[in-house]
Every structure is written in C-alpha cells, then in structure tokens.
Design a protein that fits this description.
The chain has 7 helices and 10 strands. By secondary structure, it is an alpha+beta fold. The protein folds into 2 domains: 5-67, Arc Repressor Mutant, subunit A; 74-231, Chorismate lyase, CATH 3.40.1410.10.
Length: 239
C-alpha cells in the first residue's frame, strides 16, 4: 500500500465534508476537526492548504475556516499584457475594486533602482484589492514617478487598472517584463486578502516599459491560487 494513502484518504474525507457544507458556513476548529478525522493538526493543516489553493475554503485570522462557493477562475494567457478588469469583462465575470489607496511616497533604495530615479524622488503608489463575487482574490500595487502619474490624475471613477488608464490616456507603452513566483503571504498582504499569514500566493513583480525603454510602472501583484488560471502559448523550437 502506498505510504501516502492515509493522506489521500484524508483529502477525500475533507473534500466530502466541504462538499456537504453550505457556502459561508464555518468548519469545526482545527483541534476538533483533527480529532474527528483521526489525524494530527499538522497533517490536517497541510491537507487544508490544498483546498485553499483551489478556492474552496478560506481561513480567516482569528475567526476560523469557512467554505466558500466555487467561482469561475479568471483564465488568461501571458503573451499579451492585459488588466484583470479586461480579462474579467471578456469572460463575463464581474470584479470590483475595494480598499483603494492612492498616495505620494518618496523613492527608497528599491524603487529608485527599478525606476532609475534619484533618492527622495516623489512617486505615486496605487494600492487596491480586486474582488470577485465580493471575495478578495488579488492585491495589486503600482508605483510610478509622479511625472508619469500624479495622484490627482486618476478620476473619481477609476476602475482599478493603472494600465488601462495609461493606455486610454495615450501613453506609449511598449513591453512588460514579469518575474513570477510562489511565495508565502506576508502579514500585510495576508491581512489584505483575508487569509492566514504564510499561505501560498502567486506573485508577479513587473516592469512596464515605454517607447524609450524606460520603466514607467513598477507593479507588485499577489493572487490567490485557485481563482486564476494563467497560461502561455510557446512556439516549438526547431533547432
């Protein structure tokens, strides 16, 4: 019998329990659930993470683990840079923006290096949460020189996409480079996304270039796995 059979059985039991629990209802707390399923809390926590990644449950700090109704994932190719709002609209999915913060900051060692500006240069930082069916699914941060985007430039009906705003304004944007990784959620990001600190997130660190090959936007995006399907179509090499 395979060594991982007990864990597979645990996942099957959890899947059945989650399927029978109405959306919005809280599961038993970890000690009680671990006792009911006959496993350690550490093993239970590892199995639970699998269902968090699928977007079937959500752990809220200090509150518990809740079953959530499955929503359709946003499916996007990475060959062309598009905003989440554009992708969602094309797929007929409704997203909303919350917790929007537009503020002026000064360049630190990291941002001055990325944006190629002097220390203490004024920058505009745009932070917001993207929600699908009311649930936070992504936390987005854009940082731009004030010469590119001043906080007062954004309209009252700003939809959350800095990219869409710049394109609509007519800015000459040419390309983008994104470094993609899986990370453990920090305290700040986890709080914004209403998940447990240390839960796995998909992280994009992106640079948006203009026609002069200058970085005009440095963005940090944090996605809850299970709500997004990213893919890329690649040409087959012929030697």
């Amino acid at each position: 019998m395979p060594n991982n059979f007990p864990f597979q059985r645990l996942q099957a039991d959890l899947a059945e329990l989650i399927d029978k629990t109405p959306a919005g209802q809280r599961l038993l707390n970890e000690p009680e659930l671990a006792k009911q399923l006959g496993v350690s809390r550490a093993t239970l926590r590892e199995a639970i993470r699998t269902f968090e990644v699928q977007g079937l449950i959500r752990r809220k700090q200090g509150s518990g683990t809740y079953v959530v109704g499955k929503i359709k994932a946003l499916d996007s190719g990475l060959e062309v840079l598009e905003s989440l709002e554009t992708v969602a609209k094309r797929q007929g999915l409704k997203t909303t923006v919350s917790d929007l913060v537009v503020e002026t900051i000064v360049a630190d060692d990291e941002t001055k290096s990325v944006l190629k500006v002097h220390a203490n240069t004024k920058l505009t930082r745009v932070r917001r949460i993207i929600r699908a069916e009311g649930r936070p699914v992504a936390y987005l941060i854009d940082i731009l020189p004030e010469s590119v985007l001043h906080p007062d430039d954004l309209p009252a009906n700003f939809n959350g996409s800095v990219l869409d705003f710049l394109l609509a304004r007519g800015d000459s944007l040419v390309s983008s480079r994104a470094d993609i990784s899986a990370i453990d959620g920090t305290a700040e990001v986890s709080k914004q996304l209403e998940i447990q600190r240390g839960d796995v997130l998909l992280h994009f660190s992106s640079h948006l270039f203009d026609e002069n090959n200058k970085v005009v936007d440095y963005s940090l995006s944090y996605f809850i796995p299970g709500y997004f399907h990213f893919h890329i179509v690649r040409r087959v090499g012929n030697g």
